[in-house]
Amino acid sequence: MFIKHANGSITPQETAELIAFLQQEDNEDLLPLPGEIDDIPAPTMDAAATARVFQQLSAVTSPVAPPARRRTLLRRVITVSAAAAAVAAAVVLLFHPDRQKPVLASVSTGYGSMKKVTLPDGTTVTLNANSMLQYDSTGWQPGSREVWINGQAFFDVAPDAAGKFMVHAGNKLTIQVLGTRFNVAARTKGIQVVLNSGKVKVGLPDNSNEHTLVLLPGEMAYYNSGDGQLSRQQADTLQLTSWKDNQKVFRDATLADIAAFIEEQFGAEVTFAAPQLSHLQFTGTTPANDLDVLLNILTKSLDIRIDKHNNQVMIMLAR
Question: Mind telling me which residue stretches traverse the membrane in this protein (predicted)?
């Protein structure tokens, strides 16, 4: 039944019998020996089969207290063979029903605001405006540090978390931290990972090597939501991460680029009275979370007129 459970051919009745057998205290001598399992040809377990094993076990089991005798039994199960590895993993869950499911804690920011968060391992995360950070508040421990980010955040990862810290950006990219400080911007049009120091490995959810980039300081990984391509680029780290110090650095930015920033950062809609205005360029530094100051600087620097009413911003030619 071990092999039948692994390849998905076991019936619900046989599954129940297998679980009842494992829950008995005196059946250790009846477990198959490693050689006996190895002599039976078994298919390679894929992700779908593994998920099916866990689903079947979850459907027919209920929480029970794990006696010491069953731990000895469990060790025998784990050693039987690679063919039954998925079943052994499922049995681990069966005999540890008290293990809590992930409970995601959420921290979010509104338009025009920022927030600094300290994670349980000492890692600090600075959240930009219009962003959300989530992490497991119950299972945060060595080997299982994971966070999810939508929006923009700057991570300063605690040294003891190096190599054990994963960031999931916008459900499109996975970032493995190898000891670092880096910026993640997961927005609708694409995802941007900028490395300030250390090293990170950025990849698509399929985890294939051909879709993985290892970044060095001063580099950026960019995922284009339109075509699904992941590319490496050189990055101006000061320009792209200065927001965490409440500064926004613009270098030859067009008003169209600045309008996109205003919409993401402040939730305001920007329109142009004349199309050619969107091509005007601006270079300078402004506060990252003060829209009125930004608009005032643009007005004086580009000789334009800007009217703001509620969440509507109109950019016009100067009179």
Answer: 77-96
137-141: Cβ within 8 A, 24+ apart: 137/103, 137/104, 137/105, 138/100, 138/102, 138/103, 139/100, 139/102
Q: Looking at the predicted structure, is the pLDDT value of residue 160 above 50?
A: yes
Could you tell me which residues come within 8 angstroms of residue 281 by beta carbon, excluding any fewer than 6 positions away? 252, 253, 254, 255
Parse the chain into domains and list their residue ranges. 2-94, 104-239, 246-317
> Which residue type sits at 197?
S
Looking at residue 309, its pLDDT comes to 92
Would you say 230 and 199 are in contact if contact means Cβ atoms under 8 Å apart? no
pTM for this predicted structure: 0.64
Residue 124 and residue 117 in contact, taking contact as beta carbons nearer than 8 Å? yes
- For the chain, the maximum distance between any two Cα atoms, rounded to a whole number of angstroms, is 93
DSSP 17: H
Structure tokens at 307: 């009217």
The percent of the chain in helix, strand and coil, each rounded to the nearest 5, is: 35, 35, 30
Q: Are 202 and 215 in contact (CB under 8 A)?
A: yes
Q: Domain 104-239 belongs to what topology?
A: Jelly Rolls (2.60.120)
Count of CB atoms situated within 10 Å of the CB of 315: 24
CATH topology of domain 246-317: Phage tail protein beta-alpha-beta fold (3.55.50)
Q: pLDDT tens digit string along 255-264?
A: 999 999 999 9
Distance separating alpha carbons of residues 210 and 103, to the nearest angstrom: 33
If one counts every other C-beta atom within 10 angstroms of the C-beta of residue 63, the result is 9
What is the number of other CB atoms lying within 10 angstroms of the CB of residue 198?
Answer: 17
Cα first-last separation, the chain: 84
* Whole-Å CA distances, 22 to 65, 94, 177: 13, 10, 39
